[in-house]
Design brief:
145 residues, alpha+beta, Chemotaxis protein chec, 6-stranded antiparallel beta sheet, two-stranded antiparallel sheet, globular
Length: 145
């Protein structure tokens, strides 16, 4: 699972060092490639296996459902395979542009996936979720951990 958050820098070619703890999880999964797409102003990175499961569900969406069409056009069509080489991935220019990634980024674990944020955008998002967390945690108390 992908847990924790850390600050990293993209190099001039858009390469990002994947945190060691995330690489260890990828090694356990036997995966040397991530599938990366964009949503909510950041990138979402999936193992190939998790992405395959998502694609299988997406392939069964009703053919003429407007929500399904929007999902496929926005989320699925933006996906790129990013092979892991020397502990790093290269984020394609299109994905860097659509999310405003420049140099400083935050890598944020989300259990089955992780997010890649522009550092300033992450700080704004973290402030927002910090404000809504008390209410959200009450709504999710049914998780009964």
């Amino acid at each position: 699972m992908f847990r924790g958050r850390s600050k990293h820098n993209l190099d001039a070619k858009g390469r990002l060092a994947i945190p060691t703890r995330f690489r260890e999880f990828l090694n356990q999964e036997g995966d040397d490639c991530l599938v990366v797409t964009h949503k909510d102003g950041c990138l979402w990175a999936f193992t190939r296996d998790a992405w395959r499961r998502l694609e299988e569900k997406a392939a069964n969406l009703p053919l003429f459902d407007n929500a399904g069409i929007a999902f496929l056009r926005y989320f699925i069509s933006g996906a790129e395979e990013c092979p892991l080489k020397n502990g790093r991935i290269t984020i394609p220019l299109y994905l860097r542009q659509v999310t405003g990634l420049e140099k400083e980024v935050m890598v944020v674990g989300q259990l089955k996936r992780f997010e890649i944020w522009d550092k300033k955008k992450w700080e704004e998002e973290f402030e927002r979720v910090t404000e809504v967390f008390p209410e959200a945690s009450q709504a999710l108390q049914e998780l009964r951990i």
